[in-house]
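Q: I'm writing up a methods section and want to include an example of the input and output format. Could you take the sequence below and give the corresponding predicted structure tokens, formatted cleanly so I can copy it straight into the document?
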Amino acid sequence: MDIYAPGMAKGAPDLALRLHVNVDHVATVRQARRARFPDPTEFALACEAAGADGITVHLRKDRRHIQDDDVQALRGRIGTLLNLECSLDDEMVDLACDSGADAFCLVPENRAEVTTEGGLDVIAESARLATAVPRLGRSGGLVSLFVDPDLDQIRAAAATGAPFIELHTGRYANTVDAEREAELERLRRAAELAHELGLRVNAGHGLDLVNVGPVARIAHLEELNIGHALVARALFVGAGGAVREMRVAMGLEG
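A: Here is the clean output for your methods example:
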């Protein structure tokens, strides 16, 4: 069965958890020198060879890391699924529609931020989403909304017609002890509500070898998107080693 096939019935058995590798920060290193290397596509291919189930990139309006040519190169060379993150900006939605990506994740974007700081305000963005979601769907990819584990936002996400949400795990990743456990419970409740509403559920942001295990065990999750921690670890153990370590931490390998 196609793991991205739409129409999963409510209450259907959960699919096996997948690891998508975000290769943005390979491009960050390259862009620091405006050089030709390191190449995000070569890194992606090495990750696939080690067991990555898909590749994620965020094409930002300011092109701070991933470039348009990177998206084209990845689409032409990788053998797994390409997930393209972009904002609701008209230009970026147009580019996404023409990209040939297998999936799209709509994210908030602030030019001053270092990294994405939170989930999309689905309630406030309902008008733009009413246009963007069906447009992206007609282009051939499945649409996901990057949201905080807020129950009202998840209800609003279900109303857009997008088949997926991706839960923002940043607050969980940036807390410790009792506060982290509380954030983990928020993620569990959010995933449960999303499933009840017929949404499929991914998660990501700030996950690493230390904190990924409890998130990987949340019911109904289909995919984790992990980038910075995996790219950073690859500096020491290589792309393949970093992917294999993450798969073990996620419980996908012994």
